[in-house]
User: Which sequence fits this backbone?
């Protein structure tokens, strides 16, 4: 009877180990997260959010939906947490989809675990009843 011996990566040629590592980097990781939403100033009375992402290697593709049911005293901008900390500055875009249809910009700073949402002209993007749907791509 022949005994099977497991292959040890340490005994494989370097090119074989590198190929295996490259393949692992290309396998997409899909997930969901619940972004924590905070305003640039003041506070929301009622806000909720959902998010999904796909991570391929170091690149992360995200989509977040933020529902502002009651705006309260919130103002300036809307921040939401990301599923991974960004290694680079990045930008994204979006749209307020319930009331105005206003185009949105997403700004992510290098080393940050959150993104900042503003309107296309740097104004506050929220109000009661608004739904902000945004997408951003960045590297970790």
Assistant:
């Amino acid at each position: 009877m022949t005994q099977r011996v497991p292959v040890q990566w340490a005994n494989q040629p370097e090119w074989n180990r590198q190929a295996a590592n490259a393949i692992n980097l290309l396998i997409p990781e899909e997930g969901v997260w619940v972004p924590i939403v905070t305003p640039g100033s003041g506070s929301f009375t009622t806000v909720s959010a959902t998010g999904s992402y796909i991570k391929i290697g170091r690149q992360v593709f995200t989509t977040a939906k933020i529902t502002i049911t009651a705006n309260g005293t919130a103002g300036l901008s809307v921040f939401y947490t990301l599923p991974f900390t960004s290694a680079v500055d990045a930008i994204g875009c979006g749209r307020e989809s319930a009331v105005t249809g206003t185009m949105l910009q997403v700004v992510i700073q290098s080393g940050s675990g959150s993104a900042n949402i503003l309107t296309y002209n740097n104004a506050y993007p929220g109000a009661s009843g608004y739904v902000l749907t945004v997408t951003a791509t960045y590297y970790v």
Notes: Residues 48 and 67 are 5 Å apart (CA to CA). The beta strands are 29-33, 37-41, 46-56, 59-70, 75-81, 90-96, 103-108, 114-119, 130-139. The first helix runs from residue 14 to 25.
